[in-house]
Design brief:
CATH class of the largest domain: Alpha Beta
Strand order of the largest sheet: 2-1-3-10-4
Number of helices: 11
Mean pLDDT: 91
CATH architecture of the largest domain: 3-Layer(aba) Sandwich
Radius of gyration: 20 Å
Helix content: 40-55%
CATH superfamily of the largest domain: Bordetella uptake gene, domain 1
Strand content: 15-25%
Length: about 325
């Protein structure tokens, strides 16, 4: 189910002068925790709180966000996987622990394939290829530099195996170029060094990069989603600029423990789909470039399976290994 469909549905409801009708059926007994594997204030946390606040109002029971930062989301994922399957513990899933980590770690404290029930995809947010002030002004100019200086131009990321690093690896593979990967311990340090010219380029999440782009402190060369998002409608995608099918989006979705009853999963899914259609939620998600959310649990499960396959193949092809 696409965002455009949601907006059409909301417009129809508004024309009738009636609020959206929410699903009937079994609810969690409450209170409900939504675990977030990252610190408060980040993109994952913000999206989780948007959903939690709406569910709180809708269900009439406490729905709270609990931040469990550390290990790129793996700590929260391990806790969510082992929680009681009664709906009292959910997680705002993220590409790192549910899409990329299975390919990077020989052993995890959970199985991304077996320990989670997909409830609903919340959205996909493109990354942005950003350049230091004195670096190239276009993707074409960057490609020319990479051809002239293979392995010399520096690209920062939030760490080896991060979504940002894998966006670079996918770009290197697609363009048949090589760059110098410089891993950091977080996006803040990447952006600081990019602004200062200590590194040349970076792929970074749109939520993080947007303020620096809008202030003119870094330059945006391309976005990495399958099509342009409204928040950056004038910025071409990598796919548009000669690399058809390129997609290195960061995604978020609501999951629960694997053995949640099907009727409970269906109820939460239906309510989340309605929430994603609300005009104020649509507007907030568009601010972050988060699109293409919603649909059935089966759609989200299939999406996560495809993502694991895609990134596992890239990790193997590029020989990506975690720092010792």
């Amino acid at each position: 189910m696409q965002r455009r469909h949601f907006m059409t549905s909301v417009a129809a409801v508004a024309a009738l002068g009636a609020p959206p009708s929410f699903a009937q059926g079994k609810l969690p007994a409450g209170p409900v925790r939504i675990l977030v594997g990252f610190s408060a204030g980040g993109g994952t946390d913000i999206l989780a709180r948007i959903v939690a606040n709406k569910l709180n109002t809708l269900w009439g029971i406490p729905v709270v966000v609990e931040n469990k930062p550390g290990a790129a989301g793996l700590i929260a994922a391990a806790e969510a996987a082992k929680a009681a399957p009664d709906g009292s513990t959910l997680m705002l899933g993220h590409i790192n622990p549910l899409g990329i980590a299975p390919a990077l770690y020989a052993k995890l404290n959970y199985s991304a394939e077996r320990d989670f029930a997909g409830i609903a995809l919340i959205g996909q947010t493109p990354q942005v290829l950003v350049a230091a002030p004195k670096s190239a002004d276009s993707l074409a100019a960057l490609l020319a530099q990479l051809k002239r200086k293979p392995g010399e131009l520096s690209f920062g990321s939030s760490g080896t195996g991060s979504a940002q690093h894998l966006a670079l690896a996918l770009f290197e593979q697609a363009a048949q170029v090589s760059a110098l990967h410089v891993p950091y311990r977080g996006a803040a340090n990447v952006m600081t060094d990019l602004m200062g010219g200590q590194i040349d380029y970076a792929f970074e999440g749109m939520t993080t990069a947007a303020p620096f782009i809008k202030s003119g402190k870094v330059k945006a060369l391309a976005q990495t989603g399958p099509r342009r998002v409204k928040a950056f409608a004038d910025l071409p995608t990598v796919a548009e600029q000669g690399f058809a099918g390129f997609n290195a989006s960061i995604w978020f979705g609501l999951v629960g423990p694997a053995k949640m009853p099907a009727d409970l999963v269906a109820r939460i899914n239906a309510d989340v789909n309605q929430i994603l259609a609300l005009p104020d939620v649509v507007a907030r998600l568009e601010e972050f470039g988060a699109e293409d959310g919603g649909g059935s649990p089966a759609r989200f499960d299939a999406f996560m399976k495809d993502e694991r396959t895609k990134w596992a193949a890239l990790v193997k092809a590029r020989g990506i290994k975690l720092e010792s």
